[in-house]
Amino acid sequence: xxxxxxxxxxxxxxxxxxxxKHASSSTKTDMIFGLFLPSxxxxxxxxxxLYWLSGLTCDDTNFAIKAGPAAFEEAEKQGxxxxxxxxxxxxxxxxxxxxxxxxxxxxxxxxxxxxxxxxNYHMYTYVTEELPRLLETEFALGCDNLKSIxxxxxxxxxxxxxxxxQNEGQWTSVSAFAPICNSTDSPWGKKAFESYLGSVxxxxxxxxxxxLSQQKEQVYDEILIEQGLDDQFLFQLKPEALEKAAQKVxxxxxxxxxxxxxxxxxxxxxxxxxxxAFHGERLTKKKRHLAVEKIxxxxxxxxxxxxxxxxxxxxxxxxxxxxxxxxxxxxxxxKAGEVRVKVIANALCHTDIYTLDGLDxxxxxxxxxxxEAGCIVESVGEGVTSVVPGDHVVPCYTxxxxxxxxxxxxxxxxxxxxAIRSTQGQGIMPDGTIRFKDSEGKPIYHFMGCSTxxxxxxxxxxxxAKVSKEMALDEACLFGCGVSTGLGAVWNTCDVEVDSSVAxxxxxxxxxxxxxxxxxxxxxxxxxxxxxxxxxxxxxSLGATDCVNPKDLPEGVSIQSHIVSMTQWGCxxxxxxxxxxxxxxAALECAxxxxxxxxxxxxxxxxxxxxxxxFQLVTGRVWKGTAFxxxxxxxxxxxxxxxxxxxxxxxxxxxxxxxxxVEKTNDAIDALHSGNCLRAVVKY
Length: 684
Hints:
The chain is of the alpha/beta class. Helices cover 30% and strands 21% of the residues. The protein contains 21 helices and 26 strands. The strands form 4 sheets. Strands 1-2-3-5-4-6-7-8-9 form a 9-stranded mixed sheet, sandwiched between helices. Strands 12, 13, 14, 17, 18, 25 and 26 form a 7-stranded mixed sheet that branches. Helix 2 (68-78) runs parallel beside helix 9 (265-299) and helix 14 runs parallel beside helix 15 (509-521). The longest helix is centred in the middle third of the chain and has 35 residues, at 265-299. It is globular and about 85 Å long. The mean pLDDT is 96.
């Protein structure tokens, strides 16, 4: 379907507002609609959409201009799109009258059958069929009926009637501001129905109260209405009639009567965030449910492969500093204490590149890299009890055996379970053997106990963190390493207190997770440091109060001395997320005199050592490090996922690049090297 973007505006954080024109088959005119796309929008993803229907005299711009700032902010938070169609057809040949409540700007969201309006005024078809089809086809918005509807006044009437007429799953939720609830008993409605349809009686099928009273049971979990008590048109709206109909059929209806508010856009702006959140929560829940259904369909075929060797595709690292090779491999069934998983999505981590570049002293070739993934359990070996086929898991390179005799698992001081550390470092399974073979039958080493650059992998049971199936695996995978590490460094390793000052060196995914964690912990000042200033906007959006580029400092001024000058005595907590030993030293030396703590997160190249003057430690600074943020993997990763599902730990902003197919892993590596990539997620 042809369309033209006639205007594009950046809203914030890479979210956009566009005005789009297209030739409409419904109205036989050019139609324009507004479209807000959140920063997380990807055509390959299922992005839900909320339709906003405006009221009398409005066009596609009124809502965006007058209520957009608040609505777009909440839509960005919810990760949903907003579409704002015009209220009627427009053009030289479109019939019109000199009246605000008829003709242009007053299409009433019906299909006109009476001349002269019957040629162009088909707004019901436009909103319910043509526009959704265009959005699905060209923008992948609202697919699988991931769409909700809301509106104001005449648009509130439209939202309610559309949702009640199409009530078999076409819409996820419905709400309205000051809607015309009983349009056949309203002067506005009577005039419109007589003119567009030929009689008021023919408007019965577009009367929200009548439509609701015909239902045999509740059709939506809740219908939300906002009504100003100082509304000068309240006599036209008749919310009491809708309330009576809802009581009759058992439909939950919430009417928020707002004292002091009238019919205008100040009223809408005051409460629009509540409505966007209302729809966002329901759309997100439905999206997760659909994702679980699709993933479950994959798991239903696992019985055919259990106990058998699986042939699949993998990206194999044949040697250091060489591109990965796309190969057909075999994956043996799991042995005792092991789990075979189907990898659904994998996020690239710099540790994978560190090994591929030959910097890892434990790096072995050929091997299958990858350790930040979301998977489904395909089969389990003897003695495995904590997961079953079909479970969703995040493989964790830091295992948790939970044995009563493991002093590491039983201690609250550490997460460094050594149960399989020696074999993991040798690229083999705990029993000393290997599960991967190439097309010639030669073994391929494992990596970090995960090896997720393969469509299937075998991991130890004690490395499997079972997570909620409601979390999309292309997001859950982020908790397999970088995001968890950054958050845990703040919350566990350093236990940052409220009103603390924090400095973060390196603004990759780990550094931004540190900032996000510090903000959540209540840090009052967060200084973000990086030589790439393009990362500063993302840092600020997550809570950074100051951003510093060391390259901008005067000659002879070190970054540590600059941070100390900004804070008088240094920061309470500093974090190195670079793996550069000079930066590690700088981070320590700008920690607060007397009590400052500096945490090393980044992994340095083999053979590199850290150094500083002992006086830095004598004067009260503490130097510590963290692995996986101190989280005990099997216990804590499921909790992190639950917090993400509840909205406490949003993670979508970390995904800057997406690819489809394991063979695209080299493209993901290129993206990671580009300097503008946080996490590149590859879906298999």
